[in-house]
Amino acid sequence: MSEVLNVEEIFASKVFTLGKMRERLPKNVYKEVKRVMDYGGELSLATADVVAKAMKDWAIENGATHYTHWFQPLTGITAEKHDAFVSHPDEDGKMIMEFSGKELIKGEPDASSFPSGGLRATFEARGYTAWDITSPAFLKEDATGVILCIPTAFCSYKGEALDKKTPLLRSMEALSQQALRIVRLFGNEQATKVVASVGSEQEYFLVDREKYLKREDLIFAGRTLFGAPAPKGQELEDHYFGTIRERIGSFMKDLNIELWKLGVTAKTQHNEVAPAQHELAPIYETANIAVDHNQLVMETMKKIACRHGMHCLLNEKPFAGVNGSGKHNNWSLGTDDGVNMLDPGDTPNENIQFLLVLACILKAVDTHADLLRQSASDVGNDHRLGANEAPPAIISVFLGEQLEDVVKQLVETGEAAHLIEGGKLATGVSTLPDLDKDATDRNRTSPFAFTGNKFEFRMVGSSDSIASPNTTLNAIVAEAFCEAADLLEPEKETGNFDLAVHDLIKEYLTKHQRIIFNGNGYSEEWVEEAARRGLPNIKSMVDAVETLTTEKSIRLFEKFGIFTKAELESREEVLYETYSKTINIEALTMIDMARKQILPAVIKYTKSLADTVIAVKEAGADASVQEQLLKEVSAKLAEVKVALMVLEEKVKKASGIESQKELAFFFKDEIREAMSGLRTPVDELEMLVDKEIWPMPTYGDLIFEV
Ligand code: ADP
Ligand code: MG
Questions:
Q1: Angle between the N-to-C axes of helices 287-307 and 467-494, in degrees from 0 to 180, rounded to the nearest 10
Q2: 195 CB contacts (<8 Å, ≥6 apart)?
Q3: Helix (H) or strand (E) holding 147
């Protein structure tokens, strides 16, 4: 019998949950906290002091010695700076552990080295962190000890967002306000807010740590920069959902336990398509917490993998020629009185509301396809989106046969009188009966798919924070709701609502139906068809950056107080910079590997071949095979040398480019080309050279022998 694992007991044991607050806080304090949590506002300092003390006591009881304001700078990962609870000893030299309300609410890390895209001049270099009361504090335990982590937003002195959380929180508020106007139109007077929920499915690779440490490219770039394909790839599809091997299984078990302790509802685990690729999905939760938890998922994966002698690769494309990793961002909208606005529902009233919501989302996605594409771009994701891999870089929406047919009827006749697959419509005009949820998602190639009661945004990269995609989604849908409500509220006054909403749904669907596509998103025909429809096809992260500061984008984000123009411009700058820096590291890594490992190994091999040729000839035998091989290898070696010099030249040239934008384009167009120019002959050599001499583990070693 194996040891019994009491999940109920360990779940959230490292989280300062609402329940713990209720237990430990005086009633009035708890009430104030809950009110601010639900409806915003500020805690009084007196209240914060009481909360801080309770939080500290709980943390210390659980072994904590330090606290940190845990935040999410524009690097896309999390940041922390630890402070011990220690204070001045008292007269007797006794230590009293302290943590004040002020320290809980606000921090001033000297965080001047984080990217700010010019938002902070050096004289005000300090960034400020502010407690996000809506995301619970938790304990992180590692070699440093136990640290109390307080989720915080990170802003400049003037309040400009320097992080990913601040705009996300702003977008959630904007969306809630506008979505409430929609449900009010349909008679819901009870709901007090609407919350975006997110469930993100995280893909990842596991490789053996010893082998990982033998590859500079994995260490410095998180992905292989050289590597010939293994004889076997993913073609047999024998890994997908396959039996989970012992070593991986014990990793998954530990990972789950660790995540459950942190209050992450790790739910689903399975092997993915590529060998050594796996997936974990938690149960969906409030967008803001889902974003924080996804960061914890990624961090915990790395930590636990290390414990098991493995390394977790979160890069979008660790290996050429096998599937990359993404993150499916499942998104829905729920009122606080329990209605999922993306659920078609049973009554005509609910159905019309659903259709309006759907029409608004189609409008939003069509209007801002460029922004949505941008929100899912990062350096690694360029190898997936628009690079012969799922999903395509073109944004389109998949609705499923049934719903698409309903839309078609509404566009053509203004009514949806029947359902395909034999269903019947509830009475009334343009209503929709229970949709068969199983019928909605048979398409895995769509970047934005309706899956029964949520949308699944499949473009996001595996290593990226999900903050940006959700901020963008919330913002664009808030705008569409706002515009619809502006038109419909007056009609409600005059009693024309039914007709007006019907017309508006038809108008939106008609105008924006070009965004709907149910076919194969990977096909060449779709690329052509999408161009005919005028849908943007933005091929790279660098091309997508400028969508942030179009007039349309600034208007959207400023209207709802999500980003100011200055904040958008700063993000642009940071993105260009991040791209150039990342590719620069990759290029330098390739140069280093080629010069110090690959060239010497191949030279050694040519020497041994030459020695063999001489020895064989001396012995009076035919050495033509050896001679031929020597010639081939030597010719490739010369190619490598030339390609290496080209890459080195270009990297040198890059250092002379001043403008961040120009530099990013130079890295994308010139350096990447030179990188692949170097990779090709090296990979060919790998196929020719004795495995004993090849200086690093091969693809076969890495992905089949974990
Ligand atoms: P798959 O897409 O692989 O079929 P599931 O349908 O189980 O997987 O869902 C994947 C993710 O979607 C999970 O994280 C799940 O919690 C989340 N999810 C389910 N319902 C909703 C919803 N209404 N809103 C947001 N996310 C949801
Ligand atoms: Mg999915």
A1: 160
A2: 172, 176, 286, 287, 333, 334, 335, 336
A3: strand 145-156
* Residue 659: how many other CB atoms lie within 10 Å: 10
Q: What are phi and psi of 150, to 5 degrees?
A: -110, 110
Q: Which amino acid is at 286?
A: T
Which of 212, 213, 176 lies closest to 197 in space, CA to CA?
176
Q: Read out DSSP for 305-334?
A: HHHTTEEEE-SS-SSTTS---BEEEEEEEE
Give me the helices (H) in 466-564, please: 467-494, 497-512, 524-533, 541-545, 551-559
* φ/ψ of residue 106, rounded to 5: -140, 140
* Mean pLDDT (whole number) for 27-48: 93
pLDDT attached to residue 428:
45
- Ligand 1 pocket test, pick from 271, 273, 330 with the greatest ligand atom count within 8 Å of Cβ, gives 330
If we measure between CA atoms, which residue out of 174, 503, 176, 481 comes closest to residue 358?
481
Q: For residue 581, give both structure tokens.
A: 């820096």
Q: Alpha-carbon distance 354 to 416, whole Å?
A: 13
**Model's pTM, two decimal places?**
0.95
| Nearest ligand 1 atom to alpha carbon 331 | 25
Residue 329 pLDDT exceeds 50? yes
SS3 call for 628: helix
pLDDT average, residue stretch 98-124: 79
Please tell me the number of the ligand nearest to residue 437's CA.
1
Distance (Å, whole) CA 261 – CA 257:
6
Per-residue model confidence as pLDDT tens digits over 584-607: 999 999 999 999 999 999 999 999
| 171-185 residue pLDDT tens | 999 999 999 999 999
Query: Ligand 1: which of 203, 284, 329 to mutate, judged by most atoms within 8 Å of the beta carbon?
Result: 284
Q: How far is CA 684 from CA 422, 671, 679, in A?
A: 57, 21, 9
259 alpha carbon to ligand 2 midpoint, in Å?
20
The ligand whose atoms approach the alpha carbon of 455 most closely is: 1
Report pLDDT for 125. Answer: 61
Q: Which residues line ligand 1 (CB under 6 A)?
A: 197-199, 201, 281-284, 328, 330-332, 340, 453-454, 456
Instruction: Check residue 426 and give its pLDDT.
Output: 44
- What mean pLDDT is predicted for residues 262-279? 93
Mean pLDDT of 85-108: 91
Residue type, 368: H
The pLDDT score that the predictor gives to residue 349 is 65
Six token digits for residue 248: 């991986």
